[in-house]
Amino acid sequence: MLKNYLKIAWRNIRKQKFYSFLNIFGLSLGLASCLLITLYVVDELSFDRSFDHADRIYRVNSDIRFGGADMKLAVAPDPLAFTMMKDYPQVEAATRLREDGSALVRRNGSTENLKEELVAYADSTFFKVFSVPLVSGDARTALTNPNTMVISERDAKKYFGSENPMGKTLLLDNERTFTITGVMKNIPDHSHLSDLHMMLSMSTNPDSRDNNWGSHNFLTYFLLKEGVDQASFEKHFDTVIEKYTSLWVRQIMNATMAEMRKSGSYIKYSLIPLTDIHLHSDRSAEISTNGNVQYVYIFGVVAIFLLGIACVNFMNLATARSANRAKEVGVRKALGSKRSYLVGQFLTEAVMLSFLSLIFGIILAYATLPLFNNLASKQIIFPFGSGIFWAIAVLTGICVGLLAGSYPAFFLSAFKPLTVLRGAIEHNGKGGYLRNSLVVFQFMVSVMLIIGTGVIYNQLNYIQTKKLGFEKDQVLIVKNAYALDTKARAFKDEVAQMPNVKRSTLSSFLPTPSSRTDNTFFPQGQLQQDKGINMQKWAVDYDYIKTLNLKMKLGRAFQKDFPSDSSGIIINETAAKILGYANPIGKQIYDFEFNSNKKDKTYTILGVVSNFHFESLRKNIGALSLTLQPSYGLVAISLEGGNYINTINQVQALWKQMAPGQPFNYRFMDEDFDNVYRSEQRIGQIFITFAVISILIGCLGLFGLSAYTAERRTKEIGVRKVLGASVSNIVALLSKDFLKLVLLSIVIGSPIAWYGMNTWLKEFAYHIDIAWWMFALAGLLAIVIALLTVSFQSIKAALMNPVKSLKSE
Amino acid sequence: MIKIANMHKVFSTEEVETTALNGIDMDVRDGEFVAIMGPSGCGKSTLLNILGLLDNPSEGSYEFYGTEVAKMSERQRAQIRKGNIGFVFQSFNLIDELTVYENVELPLLYLKTPPAERKEKVEAALTRMNMMHRRNHFPQQLSGGQQQRTAIARAVVATPKTILADEPTGNLDSKNGEEVMNLLSQLNAAGTTILMVTHSPYDAGFAHRIVNLFDGKIVTEKVHV
Ligand SMILES: Nc1ncnc2c1ncn2[C@@H]1O[C@H](COP(=O)(O)OP(=O)(O)OP(=O)(O)O)[C@@H](O)[C@H]1O
Ligand SMILES: [Mg+2]
């Protein structure tokens, strides 16, 4: 029986080459896209799962409100980890990481520095929490002593080649020497810690023993004992805060916890499961840029839509053809064939088509995986060896076949033999409605994707062209300027003298990604905690404001002829507003040190700088202050138009001369700026890609349907032509019905797209408004595409000799 | 005035070439009623289709009221057909999705006749064919005779100079057939040129002239009256 089914199915597929091609092509595209997206989603979901006991590892999150600022941090105070460990037996192990940023590293004896992007201090207990195996060294003691470090296999190879690095030393930033006491396997790619290749012993860092409950700098991880419930363990944080933090508040702030809370301030700790960090954590002081679960959802939905569109084609073409196959059904039925046999026959055909498509789809996905990896910025490997993959693939093939084939199968087999043989099968009955709604669904998805693409690109364009309050174009940034050591200022001054250079400034702080520090200030000696204001405190030089073309709103910038400016401060409009002075110029504010060993500093407000976007446009502009202090991280150089290459070469030559052996890294500021929105750009590209694919699949279906309609209406077309219809009359006649469907899909799709894109735009504090013309444009595009697709068949039908059309009856 | 000279029509399919018309010369005067007869497959329909500008001859010339049309494209032919030629087919060829009224209205729509005039003309044609009472019916709800009367109404509604009829009584019983022939005669009497293919000697009796075809050639012509 099955053999018979298969034989006839195969014959039918080959007989109907055109429709089989449309079916298989569309479905392969849909399956390939769906497969790629599934691989992406699986990849995103697999982060941090490869560690032993990953389900028992948690990180501490801190939520703080203080001094008019809300902070969501991925870091905790230094004493928290081991206080919890000591007080609560539920903790099996605890460890901290303290990010130390990038570093210039070289082997002793070498003159070339290499740049390491991420160096962090780690407690010796790191390996108790994270099961990263050591290739050499003892995991229990490797990070115990000061000035020791563990490096990854990658870095061992990078610095020592085939030599054994154990006991050898590395020099960091030209001044700190560390002895290697362990080499660990590279942390898996699918981990939020994957960039960690150099860990310094925490004992080297005195901050780690500060016992400062008010300063949050340490990524804190717990391995909880088996059976410990996250929620009930989190309750203990309240106890810890009452016991330790409040003591600290009393000592340092001279206030009680209750007073703090009354003024709206709070501090809360919670746990986030290790496996949730990648997709669900987007806090300040994350150790790596995490993914975004929103995009996983969006992609999931897009994948389902694409597969849906492809299945719709399949169903549509099959039911459309049903008229042609109705005779076959009638004859078979008249000959005594049972309905179940017919259903079986059609389903076999559908599943066979679906498997053919699956094979092509897998080939297509495999072939385009590098492109997709590029697009999604991933390193996904095709899971050829995975049994689960093949099982799911086969299951998908069967399900898609059954799903796509079931409607036509039951629709066709339910024909009554007599009506069918009389040739009176209802063309616009139930089948017509379903077919029409399916076409509407397809175009709705396409319209939504087009609108989505339009909105994303408009927002990106808005970001690109927005007045930011500072000059980002034609600004060259030389990184790692601390490698110049004492010559940093001389370098900056000499660069400013070069032709084509307008100005230069030396600071670690820029409105594009760079260092950040926020401090709490109090106005005029009032140390009441409810008057505190939390703001960025950036150390800059005299030329900073002019180089970045910042505008002064009130007062004046730093000037060399006022020696007292070293204790002056310039605040931005937001800070001025929070401080609430009618005239802030000349007022004094105190930079509060949350550490009894250090002394508070008093600053006099010299001026107010107009607000500029120093964070991404996702955030509102917060409070910020500038002070005159040495800070040697970066040199920003504003250039005249013209030949940059020459200038860059000159700057590099000067660098080589003043900092021999140090890597010369530079970037243009607008590149750094654009990088902040890379994920949005990527989403935009992905949307375009899938919009094109969805339109392509939809058009394949529409093409088939219009061919079928033209075929079905051949006689009518002939008659109309005999009666004087022109070619354009006929094209209009055949296209009109499809156009109505496309219009309907625009009407349905637009509000959904509007809602979705508005939600996306809310991620930005500064965003465009969705305008009506975006919908109009998307609609027009869909209409034009649909028209082109349909008119190909219509024109063909319209140009046919009417005699031929009449003959077909 | 219709003038054809040395007309050939060859159909080539993958395997065979069929010569449907093999050197036809023929003149039709204004207001004439010509019947074309001959055995099945001799090329009658082919000839009529070419005369009606639905198809091109493979060879030869065709002058339609002073215009050479033999080599015209479908687009140009459609332009000439419009309003000049009415068709009546053996199988009626009404559009199933349209009512009697809408079917008859169709040629006027394509001629862009203004609505008021259209209504007047459609109603006149339907009244003449005695189909007014059925104007809102669909073709499947009509008898064969009624369908053919509708088709004739549609053929005459734009008052064409020429009506071509391919076996207009072929699917009808003798009573309905007689009725259709009377209608055609009346139209002819009112000045319309009629070219009709028929197998029925009785029907051919209504014509002024009978052209006999055999194997794509005219074998005899007989003139009545
Ligand atoms: N489109 C076509 N392709 C190939 N051959 C054709 C085509 N149309 C007609 N013929 C052939 O041309 C010849 C004439 O056909 P035509 O339809 O003119 O015959 P007829 O005289 O109208 O016959 P009948 O009385 O049966 O209607 C026939 O042999 C037919 O097979
Ligand atoms: Mg014939």
UniProtKB/TrEMBL annotation, chain A:
Keywords per UniProt: Cell membrane, Membrane, Transmembrane, Transmembrane helix
Recorded coiled-coil stretches: none
Q: Does the keyword Protein biosynthesis apply?
A: no
Q: Where is the ABC3 transporter permease C-terminal domain?
A: 301-413, 689-802
Q: How does it sit in the membrane?
A: Multi-pass membrane protein
A Pfam family that the UniProt record links to this protein: MacB_PCD
Instruction: Write out the annotated subcellular location.
Output: Cell membrane
Q: Which residues form the MacB-like periplasmic core domain?
A: 20-236, 445-612
Q: Which residues cross the membrane?
A: 21-42, 295-320, 341-367, 387-412, 433-457, 686-710, 738-758, 770-790
- What is the protein name stated in its UniProt record? ABC transport system permease protein
Where is the organism placed in the taxonomic lineage, from the top?
Answer: Bacteria, Pseudomonadati, Bacteroidota, Cytophagia, Cytophagales
UniProtKB/TrEMBL annotation, chain B:
* UniProt-listed CDD domains: ABC_MJ0796_LolCDE_FtsE
**Which Pfam families did the record assign?**
ABC_tran (PF00005)
Q: Kindly list any coiled-coil regions of this protein.
A: none
Q: Where is the ABC transporter domain?
A: 2-225
User: What SUPFAM superfamilies does the entry give?
Assistant: P-loop containing nucleoside triphosphate hydrolases
Record's Gene3D superfamilies?
Answer: P-loop containing nucleotide triphosphate hydrolases (3.40.50.300)
Which molecular-function annotations from GO does this UniProt entry contain?
ATP binding
Q: Transport among the record's keywords? A: yes
Q: Which UniProt keywords apply?
A: ATP-binding, Nucleotide-binding, Translocase, Transport
Endoplasmic reticulum listed as a keyword: no
Q: Describe the family membership recorded for this protein in Swiss-Prot or TrEMBL.
A: Belongs to the ABC transporter superfamily.
* Matching PANTHER family: CELL DIVISION ATP-BINDING PROTEIN FTSE, LIPOPROTEIN-RELEASING SYSTEM ATP-BINDING PROTEIN LOLD
Q: What is this protein called?
A: ABC transport system ATP-binding protein
- Tell me which species this is from: Dyadobacter arcticus
Organism phylogeny: Bacteria, Pseudomonadati, Bacteroidota, Cytophagia, Cytophagales
